[in-house]
Every structure is written in C-alpha cells, then in structure tokens.
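Q: what does this look like with pyridoxal-5'-phosphate bound?
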Amino acid sequence: MSQKEKSSQAGDAYRMPDLHSVFEARTRIEKMIWETPLIDSPAVARESGAAEVVLKLESLQNTGAFKVRGAANKILGLSDEDRARGVITFSTGNHGKAVSFVSGHSGIKAVVCLSEHVPAYRVEKIRELGAEVEVKGHSQDEAEEHYYHLMESRGMIPVVPFDDPAIVAGQGTIALEILQRRPDLDMLLVPLSGGGLLAGIAMAAKSINPKISVVGVSIDRSPAMLESIKAGRPVAVEEKDTLADSLLGGIGKENHYTLPLIQKYVDEHVRITEPEIEKAMAYAFTQHSLVVEGASAVGIAALQSGKVNAGGKKVAPVISGSSVDPAAFLKVVQKHVK
Ligand SMILES: *Cc1c(COP(=O)(O)O)cnc(C)c1O
C-alpha cells in the first residue's frame, strides 16, 4: 500500500464531502439542472409487497442522466484561472455528455476521451453538446492513458466521473429533492458502479434521516464496488457485456472517497442479473411509458426479483438515466411484450 493510500484510509488527508457541501452544490447547480419528478408505481409496489413505490426520474434530467449534477458542481466551482485552462475527462458516455453539456453552457473548453468501443450514438451525442471528442484506444484503460497524456500536454483540469468530493456532493442533491418531497420514505434503491451516485445519496440521506435505509444495486456481471468492499481495498473485475453498460468499469486504483463513504453509509447491497434487467426495462416501458437504460432499471429489478425486502415499506428507486441504443431497447421490448 502506498503512503497516499494509507493516509486516505486514516481519513485525514482527504476532506470528505458532507451534507453542507450537498446544500452548497444544490445552489451552485440550480440553473443547470431540472428538479426531476417522483412518480407513483403502484404496479411495482404490488409486485414487491411494498406499501408504496415512487420512482425518481433522473432519466428525464438534462442530457438524459443524473451525471450533470456532479459535473456542474465540479466545473462551476472551478476558479477563473482553472476555467480558462479548460476541462478534460474520459468516460463511457453519460459523464462525458454531462461534462460536454456543462462546459458548452458555461463557455468552457472541454475534451472528452473515449475508447473505440463506445457506441457511435454516444460519441455523436457528446460531440453535439460542444466538447472536442478524442476517440483513441481499444479499451477504457487505453483511453485513460491518452487522457493523462492530453491532460499534461495541454494543461487541462481533470473532471473525473465519481471519485471527487464535488462530484459526490453534486449527485447527493438527488437525496435532497427526494426527501424534501417525501421525508416519510423508508428506503432508497440506488444503482452502483463507481459509486458517486450511491455515496452522495447515502451520505446526504443518512445525514438528514439516520433511520432511512439505503441499498446499493450492482450488476452481477461487474460488481467492482462489492468486490472492493469485500477485499477492503479497490480491486478490478473483468468487464463483460451487459445491458447496463453505464455500470461497467472499476472504482479506480486509488479510490479516496466513494469506497469509504459507501462503507460508512450504505445498509445493504444486492446484485442483479441480465434477465432481471431486461424484464425491468420492459416493465418501465409498458407500465409507465418510460424509456430507461439498463443501468437505471436495476432498482426496479431489485424490487421485482424480491432480492430486497420491501414488504410494507415506502421505497424510492432512483431511475438514473435513459441513454440506450434504440435498437437494443426495441429488442428488449419485443422480447418481453407479447
Ligand atoms: C454513471 C451511471 C450510474 C452509476 O453511477 P456511479 O456514480 O458510477 O456509481 C448509474 N446509472 C447511470 C445511467 C449512469 O450513467
């Protein structure tokens, strides 16, 4: 273990985001985001035995996913000098879109590095929002290498997808919106990959109401955070094809924020399989006319599959995004809707 990692585990070298930083984030990002709706899902409530299920629709957020909250909090919080240098990121999609959107709207130069495997429809969306797109490398790791190279050679400011206090605090604003409207909820269900979304929501929700239960929902095919929690340090997992492609990827070799926050604030974890994701996506479409991507259907899947005990509780799954390849989406719907 490096010296840096040791000190992060001791918790003294890195300032953890707290509820105060989430309230600051809410004010900072106000003009860049929508307060997204909470809608009733009596059908999912019936299936799971929950007293009530309300869906938090971040799939209707600007750019089609919640990631714009964290990106806006990070970028709008930069000094004038840093803004002038421009920002850079690498991303499988939604984070890249968010960085492109926020930079485009604030007149800040942005570069987004992607691997050759990122689907073409995602690459185009990022470009449309204003960022310069660099497609290079056969894997995420190679795209990341190119990103480090450009960051140094051009002197740009990195905006990482999850392991940053400003990103975590930005995603935490979702908890403020949910609990302001529904302080009586018993449980929140949150999709989990790198953990910015879950860490922010869990920290904020538990700081407001220590009795609320926060559940992380991972995919069976790539549960990097769960393996890392088990090992007590960041570990990499093999990446396999999944409908929930926004949940792929590791938690970073030197994770400083999301792993410790999730260890501290999250009550329970569940793992969802591919057939369960498909079923939940089709269900969101038939019951609510909602187009959701695989990653954002996992909360519904956790309830439908009975993997989380929701009996008699008031539960809110966070529906995190809607970026789905239209052809892949139609295939799922055709398979499940007769
Ligand atoms: C990024 C993303 C997630 C996971 O967020 P993390 O902060 O990486 O855990 C979930 N759903 C969607 C749609 C995303 O884009």
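Strands lie at 38-40, 52-57, 87-90, 110-114, 132-135, 157-158, 187-191, 213-219, 268-272, 314-319. The chain has a mean pLDDT of 93.
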